[in-house]
Amino acid sequence: MASWKDAVQSVPGGVRLLVEASAGAKTERFPDGFNPWRGGRIGVRVRAPAQEGKANEAIVRLVAAFFDLSFAAVRVEAGHLDSRKTIAVAGITRDAACALLAPHPEA
C-alpha cells in the first residue's frame, strides 16, 4: 500500500506534491488526509470554487503558507482542471517537506 511519503517527490530545486483537491469546502486545510486508492495523494481543501482558477490559486496560497514559502515558489504543475493535481514547490528538499508533513497524522 502507498505511503503519504510517496506523494512527496524530489525534483531539481524542490519537490513535487501529488494532491487531491476539494474545492468549495467549508474550511481550508492542508494536509487533509491521504488517499492511497486514488494514486496516493495528500488531500487539500479550499473554500474557493473550482472556477476561473480560483481554487488553484487558493491551493497555491495554502501550500505556500504551510511550507512558509512565497506564493511564487509554488505552482500547479498539472491537473489544472482536475481534482487530482501535481504541485511544484521550489526551495524545499524532500526531507524538509516530509519533516513538516510528518507531525500531521492525517497526512
Question: Can you tell me the number of structural domains?
Answer: 1
The quaternary organization reads as: single chain
Mean pLDDT, to the nearest integer, reads 93
CATH topology: Conserved Hypothetical Protein Mth637, Chain: A
Helical residue percent band: 10-25%
Tally of alpha and pi helices: 2
Extract low-pLDDT stretches. Answer: none
Give the termini separation.
15 Å
Content of β-strand: 25-35%
Counting DSSP E segments of at least 2 residues, the number of strands comes to: 6
What is the ordering of alpha helices and beta strands?
EEEEHEEH
Rg, rounded, reads 12 Å
User: Major beta sheet, specifics?
Assistant: 6 strands, mixed
Shape from CA axes?
Answer: globular
Question: What's a quick, concise take on this entry?
Answer:
By secondary structure, the chain is an alpha+beta fold. The protein has helices spanning 54-66, 94-101; strands at 8-11, 14-22, 34-35, 41-45, 74-78, 84-90.
